[in-house]
Write a structure and sequence with these properties.
- By secondary structure, the chain is mainly α.
- Helix 1 runs parallel beside helix 3, helix 1 runs antiparallel to helix 4 and helix 2 packs antiparallel against helix 3.
- The radius of gyration is 17 Å and the shape is elongated.
- The relative contact order is 0.16.
């Protein structure tokens, strides 16, 4: 029974993490388009609160509970699908950290990308989500 609770809360944390990962770059799009100081400051506040208050905690919980699931199911580490999934999670963590770096650039008024770049940047985690879910559910290899 404990396993199912851990799995449920892992999935909740993953959903929350991805919601933030999808929304933060969208805020960057609008921030890059903002033309007034009040708007830019509002986006800085929204971005900071999203990153620190939702994105970071949900990432920590998702990863911690994922590690707990691996501890309860060590045989998964011998399967190719899990190796691929973990590699994609590492990429997701890298994307998360990249978002943090971009957030700091906006905070310091040093953004060097336009809104179109952020629109493209916003699409990458969709591919990671699709691949991770397929690997976790289908376990193709």
């Amino acid at each position: 029974m404990t396993y199912l609770w851990i799995k449920a809360f892992h999935l909740i944390a993953v959903v929350t993490w991805f919601a933030a990962i999808f929304y933060l770059p969208r805020l960057f799009v609008y921030h890059a388009m903002a033309e007034d100081e009040a708007g830019r400051e509002r986006f800085k506040t929204m971005e900071r609160k999203l990153y620190r208050g939702i994105m970071n905690p949900s990432a920590v919980v998702a990863i911690a509970l994922g590690l707990a699931l691996l501890w309860l199911n060590p045989g998964w580490l011998t399967q190719g699908w899990m190796h691929a999934k973990l590699a994609l999670v590492v990429l997701l963590v890298g994307y998360h950290l990249w978002c943090g770096a971009l957030l700091r650039r906006f905070r310091d008024d040093a953004n060097s990308h336009g809104h179109v770049w952020y629109r493209i940047f916003n699409e990458a985690p969709v591919l990671l989500l699709v691949a991770i879910v397929i690997l976790a559910v289908v376990k193709p290899f």
